[in-house]
């Protein structure tokens, strides 16, 4: 193994891995923005039901669209900084030991971008939980944890920006440990709450259970993958601060949050089709059959089911009730 394998080699691997995740996130962004106007491009021969289904999927509110735009901008900027950092060390500072030991400002700036992406994603899923439970206590507790996490993340980023050399970069170890620990805890908590909510909402209706199973899978992925990268970032930085292996996790962590949020948004059409295709033989379920009804007195989540004869299916309540 060469002398630079664990430093510049790790940086190169981190940049390449980040670009792979950025490519996946870019595909999701493109798919999202394409479907915002896709129903205008449908063939004139398509049925009115299919046109209306696409219209419901693309009718997002302005705050949600703005959230996607901000995440896309964060990912583009973060990936550009990663490329710039790699070029700076591998090309501009090649064979210059003084340059190789200097911490470029773009490296600690990644912490601030990760903090922004995770904060947006955490708030999005907290809002989903509030829409499902209507519990101000749970929502308030989650907001307190998120404010604490974002605040510690800002302090970590600002503190890291003041470090000038890799030899002294380990001084941010304590504050970085606190930030990543809080972030992983919030990831796991949000995932556990969503899985619990979807699990107790299961009914005897196969189509509803299929949708809830898909949502539980997404919630599990959100908590497991993001927390795994946070823990990997933490352990690699604490155990081997002299190496740059931690950059592999740090560069990709922001993309992980974006991918999990975008997966939640993009899957809405798939879930609507599952509900629509499950109705056959003229027996359909009203849209109210899939709404979670919180009890005002006890805060217990209940499912109201209603079966009736209908000719049209409008599963648009997924957007409002499941936070999609």
UniProtKB/TrEMBL annotation:
Entry keyword Transferase: no
Superkingdom of origin organism: Eukaryota
A Pfam entry, by short name: DUF6534
Keywords assigned: Membrane, Transmembrane, Transmembrane helix
Domain annotation DUF6534: ranges: 184-269
Transmembrane domains' residue ranges: 12-32, 68-90, 102-125, 137-160, 180-198, 219-238, 244-266
Keyword Membrane among record annotations: yes
Protein's name according to its UniProt entry: DUF6534 domain-containing protein
Lineage start: Eukaryota, Fungi, Dikarya, Basidiomycota, Agaricomycotina
């Amino acid at each position: 193994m060469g002398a630079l394998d664990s430093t510049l080699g790790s940086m190169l691997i981190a940049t390449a891995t980040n670009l792979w995740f950025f490519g996946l996130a870019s595909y999701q962004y493109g798919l999202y923005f394409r479907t915002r106007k896709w129903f205008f491009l449908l063939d004139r021969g398509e049925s009115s039901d299919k046109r209306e289904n696409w219209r419901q999927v693309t009718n997002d509110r302005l705050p949600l669209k703005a959230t996607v735009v901000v995440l896309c901008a964060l990912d583009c900027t973060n990936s550009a900084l990663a490329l710039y950092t790699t070029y700076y060390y591998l090309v501009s500072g090649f064979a210059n030991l003084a340059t190789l030991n200097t911490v470029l400002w773009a490296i600690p700036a990644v912490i601030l971008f990760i903090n922004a992406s995770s904060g947006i994603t955490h708030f999005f899923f907290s809002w989903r939980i509030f829409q499902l439970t209507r519990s101000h206590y749970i929502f308030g507790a989650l907001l307190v944890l998120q404010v604490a996490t974002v605040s510690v993340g800002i302090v970590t980023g600002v503190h890291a920006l003041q470090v000038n050399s890799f030899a002294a970069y380990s001084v941010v170890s304590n504050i970085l440990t606190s930030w990543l620990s809080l972030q992983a805890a919030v990831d796991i908590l949000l995932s556990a709450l969503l899985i619990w909510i979807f699990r107790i909402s299961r009914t005897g209706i196969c189509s509803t259970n299929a949708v809830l199973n898909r949502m539980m899978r997404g919630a599990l992925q959100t908590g497991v993958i993001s927390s795994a990268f946070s823990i990997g970032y933490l352990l690699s930085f604490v155990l081997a601060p002299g190496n740059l292996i931690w950059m592999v996790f740090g560069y990709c962590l922001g993309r992980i949050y974006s991918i999990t949020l975008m997966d939640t948004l993009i899957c809405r059409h798939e879930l609507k089709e599952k509900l629509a295709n499950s109705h056959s033989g003229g027996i359909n379920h009203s849209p109210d059959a899939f709404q979670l009804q919180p009890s005002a007195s006890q805060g217990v989540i209940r499912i109201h089911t209603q079966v009736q004869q209908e000719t049209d299916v409008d599963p648009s309540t997924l957007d409002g009730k499941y936070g999609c």
